[in-house]
Amino acid sequence: MLGLGIANFIAGQEWIFIIIIAVVLIFGAKKIPQLAKTFGKAKGEYEKGKIEADRELKEFKESNKKED
Fold first, then answer.
1. CB atoms near residue 23 (< 10 Å)
2. Is the pLDDT at 1 greater than 50, yes or no?
3. pLDDT band (50, 70, 90) for residue 6
4. Which has more pLDDT, 60 or 68?
5. CA pair distance 3, 46, nearest whole angstrom
6. pLDDT surpasses 60 at 49
7. Residue 23: CB partners within 8 Å, gap ≥ 6?
8. Is-contact 32 24, C-beta < 8 A?
9. How far apart are CA 8 and CA 23, in angstroms?
10. Whole-number average pLDDT of the chain
11. Are residues 65 and 50 both part of a single domain?
12. How far, rounded to the nearest angstrom, does the alpha carbon of residue 24 sit from its chain's CA centroid?
């Protein structure tokens, strides 16, 4: 019950600050730029894969239309 009261008290942007503080405490300030770089690379690879999958799906649909 106490946790629910705290969650209602802390709302909106305060959660962002709490998460940032927790990340700094867990990983340390020196590791955060490295984590951000790794996250950026992973996001870029995800986007490349998504674009490639969309292109292949489009080609597959077009090839099926031509066969019909």
1. 14
2. no
3. low
4. 60
5. 36
6. yes
7. 32
8. yes
9. 22
10. 83
11. yes
12. 18
SS3 34: helix
> For the chain, what is the domain count?
2
Q: Are both 47 and 67 inside the same structural domain?
A: yes
Do 36 and 67 belong to one domain? yes
Distance (Å, rounded) from C-alpha 56 to C-alpha 62? Answer: 10
d(CA 52, CA 44): 12
Q: How many whole angstroms from its chain centre is CA 6? A: 26
**Domain that residue 14 falls in:** 1-27
Q: What are the DSSP calls for 35-62, one per residue?
A: HHHHHHHHHHHHHHHHHHHHHHHHHHHH
Q: Do 22 and 45 fall within a single domain?
A: no
Q: Residue type for 33, please?
A: P
